[in-house]
Amino acid sequence: MTIAGRRLTPWAAFWLAAAIASFFLAAHGASMTAAIDAGWAMQYPAAWRWPLNAQISAAMKWLVEEVHFHFFTFTEMTRGLAWLLKQPYDFIRSLLVGGFVRGLGRDAVQLLPSLSWLAVVFIVAAMGYYARSWRLALLVAGCFLYLAVFGKWNSAMVTLSSILIAVPLGVVGGLLLGIAGYRWRPFDRVLTPALDLMQTVPIFAYLVPILFLFGFGPVSALIATVIYAMPPMVRVTTLAMRAVPSEIRDFAVMVGCSRRQMTWKVLVPAATPSLMVGVNQVIMLSLNMVIIASMIGAGGLGFEVLSSLRRLDIGAGLEAGIAIVVLAIALDRLSQAFAQRSGYRHSESSNYLTRHPWLVTTALVVLGTGLAGLFVPALQDYPASATVTTAPFWSDLVRSINIAFFDQFEAAKVFMLVNILMPVKRFMLALPWPWLVLLATIAGWQLGGWRLATLCLGLSVFIAVNGLWELAMVTIYLCGISVAIAAMIGIPLGILATENAHAQRIVGAIIDTLQTLPSFVYLIPVVMLFRVGDFAAMIAVILYALAPAVRYTAHGIRNIDPQLIEAGIVSGCTRRQLLWRIKMPLAMPEIMLGINQTIMLALSMLVITALVGTRDLGQEVYIALTKADVGRGLVAGAAIAFIAIIADRLISAGAARTRQRLGLA
Amino acid sequence: MSEKPVKLACRNLWKLFGDGAARFVARHGAGADAAAIQAAGLIGAVRNVNIDVRQDEIFVIMGLSGSGKSTLVRCLSRLIEPTSGQILFDGRDLLRASTREMIEIRRHKMGMVFQHFALLPHLNVLQNVAFPLEVQGVPRDKREARAREIIELVGLGGRESYFPRELSGGQQQRVGIARSLAVEPDIWFLDEPFSALDPLIRREMQDEFLRLQNMLHKTIVFITHDFDEAIRLADRIAIMKDGEMVQVATPEELVLNPATDYVAEFTRDVSRAKVLSAGSVMGPVLRESETAGTVSQRARVAQIAHQVEAADKPFAVVDAEGRIVGSIDRRRVVNVLIGRDAGA
């Protein structure tokens, strides 16, 4: 600790020296290592590489082509599983779009029409009213009407049907895994790192193995979506079960509950409000996957965005992107309303019809519009002649912005590239890899003892050994700059949000919107305005990763014991002193966790920005995807995951220490 | 006084938290003192406790927070596994019962009320009260009929379809009480049932509790940190400190003969007139012509104070059979009321 900013502690002195040494090494490292014939320290020699990616690819090939269990092959098993998943998916999809048909192609006979657009709009509106209020009902109905009016109905319903399958699977799977983790400690110890990996390995990396195992199509997309969306549900479940008051658990034991009764009659129902938070997360993450999933055959809105992005048809892409956002907003608000529903109120009536007016009315509307739709097609399918498209408007707008502000955008871009991005990138690449491995290990030792040190050492050496060091440095540099800028914008915004109620509302709304947008959507305007390259990637990453920095800062400041703030005011602090002497130090652990989340989001976004031409690990994963190279994708994905894990563990350990020092633990 | 049979007892009961607790108790036996426990890096929550709870009595375990009273009651119900000792329920050692047997015993013979009510938020009053029966597999109409009966008994009739969050704290605890009585338990544990309530409600609930006990005659283990509550409700009080039993006695004995300074500290500010009985402060037997009337030996001084003070002559004190065993006069009553030492 510094005393009045003058004396350095040994650790601070060490890191100062390390920074100076780093600059020295960056400048002279190459010539020095050349002098002592240690070129391996600058560039990891190809001869020392561990061919893990080839090994994984070979293993995958063997799994797909060779393995069989007496009666059936491994591939047959996975394809069977895919068939099983396809059945409910086909059912829902027929229900929402296309109707139930027998036969194929020309011979197809429609047995039953799908739900009419009016029926679907009415159902979601009724759910909105049931969950909260008329206002929510109007909002949700408006969102769905938007989809119809702007001609996105069919795509949106395809997307919705995969969400409707993926979400229950993710929720039930997450619930069961979470309960298993709660009931059985050893399982929890295996589960936690597995979840860490699932959440940090970029999605692109496991698309290829899924393709191999389950084939191209909506089912593979479903599986990828479930894998991506399930981990938070597992975590929420375990936490929610642990948070059930111990008295309730004691009570269940005292009335003689069996283990099964304990879980299903007591713990799960008592934890339901918290579990609903997990359900909301699963929904949002599933929507986040919509575009990526369309790369392996999900179709729907995601496919529209992806194909327009490939055509650089900005208008159409933006329109489809907005449709995803609209769908996301509707589902998010709806599921949040269900989660927060005041619930558990008694009702005097005993009559089924009067107790469930909405269920009855909705059934009537569904039947009514279904029948009427047979005679009036406009009631069944929204008439194409009445749709509106805004695509040309967006294209023109972008064109005119680009024409009007080209010089300014270009100037900003060049300035950032020349003065910040390039120097940092050069610096990172000029550092010898053993030096950085050493620093990471020492940081681990300082913050978390030998265990964390071993972890940092092992994971960073893994990256070097697999020959990914340089790509990893590019990832770290892009991520580092984006996070630094996101923090510089986000922390002040978070502080602002706590200072006055008006700002809080505006900032809250912005953050909510930013978090509802699927990561891909950020690419569209960025590509429109800045075209491709590191700068465009950086802007997209900052936008995507901004939210947690704001949210955690505001949360940290709001959670400070009001008495401490009063103590500050009574001692005559000015507002500035209050902020710097009391609020910031006490909120620091929380802010660090926010930065941690920002890093995680930035890393996941970096993989997606590979589409706009970065040259980092994300690009490596993306190339592997296009070449269907399982090993290459997984190893590069693991390298990204390991960077995320190192950052996460170091920051969490640092936050825990700070919290302990402040006596907040 | 004829003594009822012992319903629940514990012998040499230990609960130590920390690694190697069982080995520690095996090695040291009953002789382990606080210093040795601390030196071994353990926390002694319950230390060598022996108690006998008799049939139909209200046995109050009183102690400040951290005294181990909550751990003790959780050991008695085996919610927490004791480190060593015996728990005898109707003469049978509970610690030897299998998980299966414990479930059966809990389902049919035990009831428990919790400090923070522990109501299930997703069930309404009726379902909450019927829950213990549901767990046993009692058919719906039967368990709901029984639940309605008890809800009526605790004065919540008409609220059957309310959910816990729609009720006040006092009402919630009535539900908790009703629920614990649904299975007609042989032994009734109450873990600080009224501590989370406001003082006025607490008093009302204590009266309600006594009213129920007068009707039901349960064997009760009642935990509290409030000495006044203990005095008001208890047939016998066990005072705990640092995991040990300091004294087990009737409220009156505690006030008259506190075993240690610690107990005396509690009893000092107690309103003695409400605790001491006429029998414990009476004087010699007088001739009938010298007395104004009779009072029961067991009557509290506070109950007879007005009567004795208003009369010119002393009152004769009689036992349960009506025999005269002593007398009580104004002076003796006033001594108690103003807290003057009886001998002075």
Distance between the termini of chain A: 20 Å
**End-to-end gap of chain B:** 30 Å
Give Rg of chain B in angstroms.
23 Å
- Poorly predicted sequence stretches spanning 5 or more consecutive residues of chain B: none
Outline the fold blueprint:
The complex is a heterodimer of chains A (665) and B (344).
Chain A: H1 10-35, H2 52-65, E1 68-69, E2 72-73, H3 74-96, E3 100-102, E4 109-112, H4 117-131, H5 134-149, H6 153-183, H7 185-200, H8 203-214, H9 218-229, H10 231-242, H11 246-254, H12 259-270, H13 272-288, H14 290-293, H15 300-311, H16 314-340, H17 352-355, H18 357-375, H19 377-380, H20 391-430, H21 433-465, H22 469-499, H23 501-516, H24 519-530, H25 534-558, H26 562-570, H27 575-608, H28 617-627, H29 630-661
Antiparallel strand pairs in A: 1-2, 3-4
Helix pairs in contact in A: 1-20, 2-29, 3-6, 4-5, 4-16, 4-18, 5-16, 6-7, 6-9, 6-10, 6-13, 6-15, 7-10, 7-29, 8-9, 8-28, 8-29, 9-13, 10-13, 11-12, 13-16, 15-16, 16-20, 16-24, 20-22, 20-24, 21-29, 22-23, 22-25, 22-27, 23-25, 24-25, 25-27, 27-29, 28-29
Chain B: E1 6-17, H1 21-28, H2 34-39, E2 43-54, E3 58-62, H3 69-76, E4 84-89, E5 92-93, H4 99-109, E6 110-113, H5 125-136, H6 140-153, H7 169-181, E7 187-191, H8 199-216, E8 219-224, H9 227-233, E9 236-241, E10 244-249, H10 251-256, H11 261-267, H12 272-275, H13 278-281, E11 294-296, H14 301-310, E12 315-318, E13 324-328, H15 330-338
Helix pairs in contact in B: 5-6, 5-7, 6-7, 14-15
